[in-house]
From TrEMBL:
GO terms for cellular component: plasma membrane. It is a multi-pass membrane protein. This is Putative calcitonin receptor. Its main location: membrane. Keywords: Cell membrane, G-protein coupled receptor, Glycoprotein, Membrane, Receptor, Transducer, Transmembrane, Transmembrane helix. It is found in: Cell membrane. It comes from the Eukaryota. One of its GO terms (molecular function) is G protein-coupled receptor activity. InterPro entries: GPCR_2, GPCR_2-like_7TM, GPCR_2_extracell_dom_sf, GPCR_2_extracellular_dom, GPCR_2_secretin-like, GPCR_2_secretin-like_CS. The chain crosses the membrane at residues 114-134, 146-165, 191-210, 217-236, 256-281, 302-321, 333-352. Signal peptide: none annotated. Pfam families: 7tm_2, HRM.
Length: 401
């Protein structure tokens, strides 16, 4: 709902200033990504109310900004808008708009997100190590899991770097836009690799009837290739429609390019898995031994689909809820769901996997046996050597007269 108003403000800014001639003693009209700034006389400051048509600028108590305060954009003596010294990019001072309470809420969400992505990264790296270390786990199904884990690791890393870039004063526009693009790409790849997991299981159980060998190049193209095409279209659209503010401001048309395919992938995956369950229930009695091998993976995928899709449902609901308290709660929930997704994926697909549990417990038993044997064989030597070692160290101490 607010996106329409945001787009309307951009359009009005362009139309209202279309026929204004350029004057060297004035800074030209400009849209800075949040608000429209009219032509301003050199050596003067343009001042206006903080925008109220975006959620982060509204006056309902959840926002970081309030409409009764003012934003300032200085026009320099040379007829150019003020540029931030370290980056030389044009800059608007919105600091007076920001409430202390809003700042604390933003920093709380930032710390929560960084913590969530860090936990997800560590958990996923451990899970990847397990999959690569144990040869008995090497199969196409686990290879699919590896790709999914890598996509979540990259997304967590990109998200941390991108969020951190917004805490750096005057950060390079090229750098933060690059991080934003990578963040969008890795987020899309997360959902398309989940779609690949669903298609793989469906093909394995329904089409190929438990013949595990499939052409993984097709899945690689879908999981990594399609998000790249989506990203290319997104980047071009952002350059054309709204090339400002590190692309952090919402642009409806561009958002559809990313979130549209994600929503489609979630719906397709849900339909595939529902059909998969139907087929499994019909074949369970006749092929119980074969199907039992894949029950765990199917259960895991069924749990993850609503889990991963819930944040997009909540974000959509948030657009139409005017209540500030509800919006505040939803914003924290979506923050947690986004940052801890990788952790949930690693737990469900790796640490709760029966094969992984059996293999790791067996490995611990073998390690314990070898350690016990080694300890018994060395214990006598250690006891014999300990006195000699102590004596040699005593000889090195200074002697008293």
């Amino acid at each position: 709902m607010y996106n329409f108003e945001f787009t309307r403000q951009q359009f009005n800014c362009f139309v209202d200033n279309l026929n204004i001639s350029r004057n060297s003693s004035f800074c030209g009209a400009i849209w800075d990504g949040y608000a429209c700034w009219p032509p301003t006389q050199s050596s003067k400051e343009a001042v206006q109310n903080c925008p109220s048509y975006l959620p982060r600028f509204n006056t309902e108590g959840i926002s970081d900004f309030v409409g009764r305060e003012f934003a300032v954009r200085p026009c320099q003596a040379n007829g150019e808008w003020f540029r931030y010294p370290t980056t030389q990019y044009q800059w608007t001072n919105y600091s007076r708009c920001q409430l202390q309470r809003g700042q604390e809420a933003v920093w709380a969400k930032y710390r929560l997100a960084i913590s969530g992505y860090s936990v997800s990264m560590i958990t996923l790296l451990v899970a990847l190590f397990i999959f690569f270390h144990f040869r008995s786990l090497q199969c196409q199904r686990v290879t699919m899991h590896k790709h999914l884990f890598v996509s979540y690791i990259l997304n967590a890393l990109a998200s941390v770097l991108w969020l951190h870039s917004h805490t750096i004063p005057g950060v390079s526009q090229v750098y933060c836009k690059f991080l934003h693009a990578i963040h969008q790409y890795t987020e899309t790849s997360n959902y398309f690799w989940m779609l690949c997991e669903g298609i793989y299981l469906h093909t394995l159980v329904v089409v190929s009837v438990f013949r595990e060998k499939q052409n993984l190049l097709i899945y690689t193209g879908l999981g990594w290739g399609f998000p790249a095409l989506s990203l290319l279209l997104y980047v071009v659209t952002r350059f054309v429609l709204d090339d400002s503010s590190c692309w952090a401001t919402p642009t409806t048309d561009a958002a559809y390019i990313i979130h549209g395919p994600i929503a489609i992938a979630l719906v397709i995956n849900f339909i595939i898995l529902m059909n998969l369950l139907r087929v499994l229930l019909s074949k369970l009695r006749a092929n119980r031994n074969n199907i039992q091998r894949y029950i765990g993976a199917i259960k895991a995928t069924l749990v993850l689909i609503p889990l991963l899709g819930s944040q997009h449902i909540l974000l959509t609901i948030a657009l139409y809820i005017p209540n500030a308290s509800v919006l505040r709660v939803l914003s924290y929930i979506t923050n947690v769901l986004s940052s801890f997704q990788g952790f949930a994926v690693a737990i469900i697909f790796c640490f709760c996997h029966e094969e992984v549990g059996r293999i790791t417990s067996l490995s611990r038993s073998k390690s314990s046996y070898h350690v016990d044997v080694a300890f018994l064989s060395l214990s006598n030597k250690v006891r014999a050597a300990s006195v000699t070692t102590l004596a040699s160290r005593l000889r090195m101490l200074p002697k008293s007269n």
